[in-house]
Amino acid sequence: MKFSSKMERCGLSPMRKFNPYAAETEKRGIKIYHLNIGQPDVITPDAYFKALREFSEPVLSYAPSPGVPALLDAVCGYYARIGVTLERSNIQATTGGSEALQATMATLLDDGDEIIIPEPFYPNYHTSVTLAGATIRPLTTCPEEGYRYAVRERVEACINERTRAILITNPGNPTGCVISPEELKLMLDIAKEHELFIICDEVYREFVYGGEPLLSALQFEGYEDNVIVIDSVSKRFSACGARVGLLISKNKAFMSQSLKWMQCRLCASTADQVAAAALYGLDPSYFDVVRAEYKLRRDTLMAKLRQIPGVVCEEPKGAFYVMAALPVDDADKFQMWLLQEFDDHGDTVMFACGEPFYGTPGKGKNEVRMAYVIKREDLERAMDILAIAIRRYRREVMGL
Questions:
Q1: Full set of structural domains in the chain with CATH
Q2: What is the pTM of this model?
Q3: What are the beta bridge partners of residue 139?
Q4: Is 70 exceeded by the pLDDT of residue 141?
Q5: For an engineered disulfide with 237, which of 86, 173, 198, 279 has Cβ 3.0 to 4.6 Å away?
């Protein structure tokens, strides 16, 4: 029997592909320090659970396809606090930010189209783009330049007659790159001048560590027809399991077309949308505490990484990931060895292998993405394990 050629061109998620092997490892009594997935251990605000407990309807019915009015209004209020005026019609609630991405790609892209994305990028972008029949035109960055990409000549060199959009993540996943207002405006200018959409994945907006104010592409006037924002409660409120995301744009034609997707899948979870609305009413001081904790975790991870010979990485300025090149021959092979053949006093570690974060063939083979979403003492132990594992792997497997 035949399968979709589009699906066959997609790969497994590097964050989850080793989960079956991890389950077998844990059955043997080995403890795994999970740095492979952006699942924070920060406590989800009780406002979410309180709203769930208080939610009571005789019938748990479908929500409107664009979203529960209470959530749309709460999101409008959140954006108003950073100087952005939105109406309900500018917002559609989705099943996580992932569905917002899928709907956007399905709405914008045809077979043979291209979308420009700075690499390394979140691997699930590739799946959404490929299933829409399009391809990624990678905009290459490097750690020596802080993974920065907002250079007119570089961006415009990627534009051709098949280009339909540019996708940026700010702050970046997996790099932690935070672009400046000037750099963001340049990207918006390029998109407008070339009549392209610019999709801005802003799910890590609050997590910046240099004292920068909150920055959204929606804050810039004159780009309403170009800007599409992907948002979510998952990381912002440590509510990944709620699966509530947002697709936001002031382009009426785009929102009208994307509504077809929303109606096709009927609606996002009614109860979770009601509960998520309560999160958007939290005092902004909530983010001050969480941001400070993530910064301490970043500093802990970086201090340990810098002590491991041969590791190359750039300090992330935002989000909660670090991309690092390890002194090993193959990150996939190394990860399998960590799960099947290695432990240090009953402990091992998982990361996300780097190659799927790139669109350029051959790049990222010895790179990994690590999420600093676990407590600091666990991060220290995980990095100690990694250092021991690298030494043993180089000696026992690579013969060095």
A1: 5-42+285-396 (3.90.1150.10), 46-279 (3.40.640.10)
A2: 0.95
A3: 118
A4: yes
A5: 279
